TrEMBL record:
This is AAA family ATPase. The keyword GTP-binding does not apply. Keywords: Plasmid. Residues 134-324 form the AAA domain. Pfam families: AAA_31. InterPro entries: AAA_dom, DNA_Partitioning_ATPase, P-loop_NTPase. The keyword Glycosyltransferase does not apply.
Length: 473
C-alpha cells in the first residue's frame, strides 16, 4: 500500500529567523520616508495623468446622439435631427448626421433651446426654484474606504449632466477629489484654508473694536491672518474640464488647518469656528452662483469635517455592507450627536445669559448609502443595516461593476468613460448604478427646495396677514 503524502504545513511554520532577518534590509530612518514619498509622488502623477490629454490637462469626452437623447435631453433622435436642421445656429456636433458627437457645452445650449421652445410638459432643465440659495451637500463618514470621494464625484457629475451648476469643495488633504477633477493646487493658499483664516481674522477685528471701546489691548493679527483678509472665495475657485463644475481643491498642507483652528479658537473663545465655511460660502456668493455645492470630507471628525457638516443642508453617509462599516457608521452618528449637542449646549448657555435666541443645528435630510454592494454575498447584512437605520437609509444599494472599476483605474468618473470601450450592456448597467443613486439624491434635493419654497410662501402670507391686521387696527 502506497504511503499517503504528508499534508503540507501552513506557510507560517518552520520559518528560518536568519533568512527572515536577511529580508529586512537596512534600518529605516526618517529620510527613507522622504524617498518613499518622492517615489509615490511621481507614481501618483503618472497614474493621475492616465485620464489626461497629451498637453497635461484633462478633457471631457464628447457625447453621442444616442447618449444625448437617452440620458441628457428627453427628445427622440429623429426629432433632435429635425431641430438641428431647422436651426443651423444651434450646435451641430461633429460626425455624420446619424452619429453626431457633442461637447457638454453644446448639450447645455441644446438643453436651453428645448427649454424655451420645446414641449412644456417635459423637463429640459432640472427643478430649481428662483430666489432660493444653493443646497450644500456634505458626503461624510469617518471610516476610510467607504466610497465618500467616489460618491461625491459621481453626484457632482450627475448633477452637471442634469444641467445644474456645481461647486465641489475638497476638504480632504489627500486631494483625491482634486485629482479626479484635474485640479492644480500648489499650496494651502489655494484651498479653503485662507477662507477659514479670513473668518477668524474678521472675528478678531470685531472683537478688537469692542476691546478698543473698553480700553483693552487688541488681539494681534499675524502675517497669515493679515494675508488671509485679502483672499476671497473667488480667489480659490478654479475651473475644471467640466463646463458647469468648479472646484476648490485640496493638497497635503490643508491638514495644517486641523492644528491651526483650535489655536485660533483658544485665542478668541467666542469665535464660532464651525461657521467659518458657511460664512465663506455665503459671503463669497457661492449660494447664489451655484445650484449644488458638494463637500468631500476627510475620513475623520475633525475641524474641517465639522465645518462641512455645519454648512450642509443635506448629509450623505456612504458605507459598505459589512459589520465593521456598519459599526463605524453607528459610532459616527454617535459622535455627530455628541459634537453638535455639545456646541449647542455651550452656545445656548451664553445666549440665554445674553437674552439672545437659542441656536439649533438642523439638516434638511440625512441618508446613509450602501456602496460597493455585492448582492450575492451581502444582501442579508444589507437588510439588517437597512432595518436598523430605517428612514435614514437610501433605498437603492450601489453595486460594484466593471465600469466603476475601470473608471477608478483611470482616475476619472464613470460618466467620463467612453461607452465604446465597453459593450453596450456593460456600460448601461454600470451607468445605471450611479443614475439610480443620483435619482434618489435628486429627490432629496428638489424635495428640500420645494419645502423651503412652501415655508417661504407661508411666512410671506403670514406677514401680509399681520400687516393687513395692523393697518385695519
Amino acid at each position: 500500500m502506497a504511503k499517503k503524502p504528508d499534508t503540507p504545513l501552513p506557510p507560517y511554520f518552520n520559518l528560518d529567523p536568519a533568512a527572515a532577518a536577511a529580508k529586512l534590509g537596512e534600518m529605516v530612518d526618517t529620510a527613507r520616508f522622504a524617498k518613499a514619498a518622492a517615489f509615490a509622488g511621481r507614481g501618483r502623477d503618472d497614474l493621475a495623468k492616465r485620464g489626461y490629454a497629451p498637453d497635461g490637462r484633462k478633457r471631457l469626452r464628447k457625447f453621442s446622439t444616442w447618449e444625448v437623447c437617452r440620458y441628457l435631453i428627453p427628445v427622440a433622435p429623429a426629432h433632435l435631427r429635425r431641430v438641428l436642421n431647422k436651426n443651423p445656429d444651434l450646435p451641430q456636433g461633429e460626425g455624420a448626421s446619424g452619429s453626431k458627437w457633442f461637447t457638454l457645452e453644446e448639450v447645455l445650449k441644446l438643453r436651453d433651446h428645448f427649454a424655451e421652445e420645446g414641449i412644456s410638459t417635459k423637463e429640459y432643465r432640472p427643478y430649481r426654484p428662483e430666489g432660493l440659495p444653493a443646497k450644500v451637500v456634505a458626503v461624510a463618514n469617518f471610516k476610510g474606504g467607504v466610497g465618500k470621494t467616489s460618491t461625491a464625484a459621481h453626484l457632482a457629475m450627475s448633477a452637471a449632466l442634469d444641467g445644474y451648476k456645481v461647486l465641489v469643495v475638497d476638504l480632504d488633504s489627500q486631494g483625491s477629489m482634486t485629482s479626479i477633477l484635474g485640479g492644480q493646487v500648489a499650496d494651502e493658499w489655494q484651498t479653503v484654508f485662507p477662507l477659514l483664516a479670513r473668518d477668524y481674522a474678521e472675528a478678531v477685528e470685531a472683537e478688537n473694536k469692542v476691546r478698543a471701546a473698553a480700553g483693552s489691548d487688541p488681539i494681534p493679527l499675524d502675517e497669515t491672518l493679515t494675508e488671509a483678509r485679502e483672499v476671497s472665495l473667488r480667489n480659490v475657485v478654479q475651473k475644471t474640464h467640466w463646463p458647469n463644475i468648479d472646484l476648490i481643491g485640496a493638497q497635503l498642507n490643508l491638514y495644517w488647518a486641523e492644528f491651526q483652528i483650535p489655536v485660533w479658537r483658544m485665542g478668541l473663545r467666542n469665535w464660532a469656528l464651525w461657521d467659518a465655511l458657511t460664512n465663506a460660502l455665503d459671503q463669497g456668493g457661492a449660494l447664489d452662483d451655484y445650484d449644488v455645492i458638494l463637500l468631500d470630507t476627510p475620513p475623520a471628525l475633525g475641524y474641517l469635517t465639522i465645518n462641512a457638516l455645519a454648512a450642509a443642508d443635506i448629509l450623505m453617509v456612504p458605507l459598505g455592507a459589512s459589520f465593521l462599516e456598519f459599526d463605524s457608521t453607528g459610532r459616527f452618528f454617535d459622535m455627530l450627536y455628541s459634537t453638535f449637542a455639545s456646541i449647542e449646549d455651550g452656545e445656548n448657555a451664553a445666549r440665554r445669559r445674553a437674552g439672545l435666541p437659542e441656536m439649533k443645528f438642523e439638516w434638511d435630510v440625512v441618508r446613509a448609502l450602501i456602496t460597493r454592494f455585492d448582492a450575492s454575498q451581502q444582501t442579508d447584512l444589507a437588510n439588517v443595516i437597512q432595518a436598523y437605520f430605517g428612514d435614514m437609509m437610501n433605498a437603492y444599494r450601489q453595486d460594484y461593476t466593471a465600469l466603476v472599476g475601470q473608471a477608478g483605474e483611470s482616475v476619472s468618473g464613470i460618466y467620463e468613460a467612453d461607452y465604446r470601450n465597453f459593450n453596450r450592456e456593460t456600460y448601461t448597467r454600470g451607468r445605471e448604478v450611479f443614475d439610480r443613486t443620483y435619482a434618489e439624491f435628486k429627490e432629496l434635493l428638489i424635495g428640500s427646495w420645494w419645502r423651503d419654497q412652501q415655508m417661504e410662501q407661508q411666512q410671506s402670507q403670514q406677514e401680509e396677514t399681520a400687516d393687513g391686521q395692523a393697518q385695519t387696527a
